[in-house]
Design brief:
alpha+beta, 4 strands, single chain, four-stranded mixed beta sheet
């Protein structure tokens, strides 16, 4: 993907002003071409955020503000560094355990090899989902509009045609929580009743998604 840096303009000014209010230092705002896949998303790093060039076609101004606040929250909470640290720690612990275990249980080697593949993935994806919940929470606290956050997430899932439904096993290998879990967490924090949540999701074109978790 080609990242085109914004050097001026209303969107850049909004992002910079928001970062300042959130206590985040960023040096760059990028526009990312959606490409042939028409991907609609946003990205964040320790000192920059990126938005696909079609984001404004599908989200309202306030919904885009939530998306930017979410990415800025990742930067403020240093999730990039924490994710890297989690990877290092998980694999270091696993390496130590495998080294000690291999001396005593060669008969279980196939099982150990399978565990060596899946256990780190499950652990790392777990931390990734925790980071998403934390960024959602901080973004909602900053914007003060939990309903807007729910609408933004629902629109992004509908536009990108990401399946909203998942089961507990599938969720173990997801970097982001499923849409039902994310909107339920936001609704709970924002004290939005279940009936109102269903109304918001119906209006956003993803009816009954909160009841689809199996």
């Amino acid at each position: 993907m080609k990242f085109n840096r914004l050097k001026s303009g209303e969107l850049r000014n909004r992002a910079m002003k928001m970062a300042n209010h959130m206590g985040v230092t960023i040096g760059r705002v990028y526009i990312v071409p959606a490409g042939k896949g028409h991907l609609t998303n946003a990205y964040g790093s320790s000192n920059a955020i990126g938005l696909t060039d079609n984001l404004g076609k599908f989200l309202t101004r306030t919904q885009m503000d939530y998306v930017m606040a979410h990415e800025l929250a990742h930067a403020k909470l240093k999730h990039g560094r924490k994710h890297l640290l989690a990877v290092v720690v998980v694999f270091s612990i696993l390496t130590l355990l495998l080294f000690r275990f291999s001396k005593h249980a060669l008969s279980l080697q196939p099982l150990v090899q399978v565990a060596a593949i899946f256990v780190p993935l499950v652990a790392i994806y777990y931390f990734s989902r925790r980071f998403e919940y934390a960024a959602d929470g901080m973004a909602v606290d900053f914007t003060g509009e939990p309903e807007t956050a729910i609408r933004a997430l629902a629109n992004l899932h509908r536009i990108d045609e990401v399946p909203a439904r998942s089961n507990r096993f599938t969720e173990l290998f997801m970097t982001h929580p499923s849409l039902p879990l994310r909107v339920e967490a936001i609704a709970k924090a924002g004290q939005i009743p279940a009936e109102r949540l269903r109304e918001i999701l119906d209006d956003a074109g993803v009816p009954d998604v909160a009841a689809q978790r199996s």
